[in-house]
Amino acid sequence: MTALLNASAKGVYTISATPFAESGEIDWASVDTLIEFYLRCGVAGLTILGMMGEAQKLSDEESVQFTRHYLRRVDGRVPVIVGVSNPGTANLIKLSRAAMDAGACGVMIAPLTGLKTESAIVAYFDQVVAALGADVPVVYQDYPQSTQADISVESFLKIVDSHPGVVMFKHEDCPGLKKLSQLRQACDGSARRYVSILVGNGGLYVPQELARGADGIMTGFAYPEMLVEVCALFAAGKANEAEDLFDLYLPLVRHEQQPGFGLAVRKEILRRRGAIRSATVRAPGAKLDAGDLDELDHLLARLTARLAARRDGRKRAVA
Predict the structure, then answer these.
(1) What residues contact residue 55 under an 8 Å CB cut-off, 6+ apart?
(2) Which pTM value belongs to this model?
(3) What is the pLDDT of residues 221-237, one digit of tens each?
(4) The pairing of beta strand 196-199 with beta strand 216-217
(5) Best exposed site among 51, 186, 214, 270 by fewest CB in 10 Å?
(6) 179 within 8 A of 205, measured Cβ to Cβ
């Protein structure tokens, strides 16, 4: 049985893509190969049905089916968080219970889109957490660029103090580095209980976020092994080496993070890496044209050359 998520969680929890066939149906064979790809990359955990996982394009029935299939395939090898955000509380609770029954370690919830005040956000989480029950670990997803629901550190701390089951904060506010520092200081395990902080935003600001006290990364970058190594280097006190490695991939990290387009890029890279059979983004969604593919060829060729130069430099240093 998979252990429940708790505030000690750290490392890379990759946001999983949802593979689709060209027909738009879920490609179950590619779900399996994608899981094995992520595990070979050394991730500490996985998150499914996030915004990058096109959760909003799945029916409620598909979401439950996908969750159960995914958890069966992972089979407890790493913890799996399930995104359950939904405009309907009853649907959110139903998926949460199905996920936990299938072996999820916890659920991730974003506030309802467009909640106008911070008190409304706090009240919403009071309601949802009460309906879930105290035994379901919760990740608070803070992504106001999408939800238009802004919350301050002070208001989030009200949720922390009221609900011990909220054990992780997914930080995606932007600009948000000061907010991350304030939250880390407030939830440091002494003045207040510790809360794990994992960061997203496509990984754009990972070195700065780790330096400010983030515990890990929760994003879907198509080279998760880089994020794993960067986290490990930071943990080993090798921040400069970690940032040097991150810099090699930064043009591709940035390219993948383009709103409304980056997911198609990410899926195409995953296809090229053998993780999935098709780069299809379920409609409505972007599709790469010949110019886009040429552009990606150029970026990947540059990355390959820079990684080779890094390996050669290491060999010379050892010699």
Answers:
(1) 18, 49, 63, 83, 85
(2) 0.96
(3) 999 999 999 999 999 99
(4) parallel
(5) 186
(6) no
pLDDT in tens, 109-153: 999 998 989 999 999 999 999 999 989 999 999 999 989 899 999
Three-state SS for the chain is: CCCCCCCCCCEEEEECCCCECCCCCECHHHHHHHHHHHHHCCCCEEEECCHHHCHHHCCHHHHHHHHHHHHHHHCCCCCEEEECCCCCHHHHHHHHHHHHHHCCCEEEECCCCCCCCHHHHHHHHHHHHHHHCCCCCEEEEECHHHHCCCCCHHHHHHHHHHCCCEEEEEECCCCCHHHHHHHHHHCCCCCCCCCEEEECHHHCCHHHHHHCCCCEECCCCCCHHHHHHHHHHHHCCCHHHHHHHHHHHHHHHHHHCCCCCHHHHHHHHHHHCCCCCCCCCCCCCCCCCHHHHHHHHHHHHHHHHHHHHHHHHHHHHHC
In whole angstroms, what is the distance from residue 159 CA to residue 163 CA?
6
256: tokens are: 């993948």
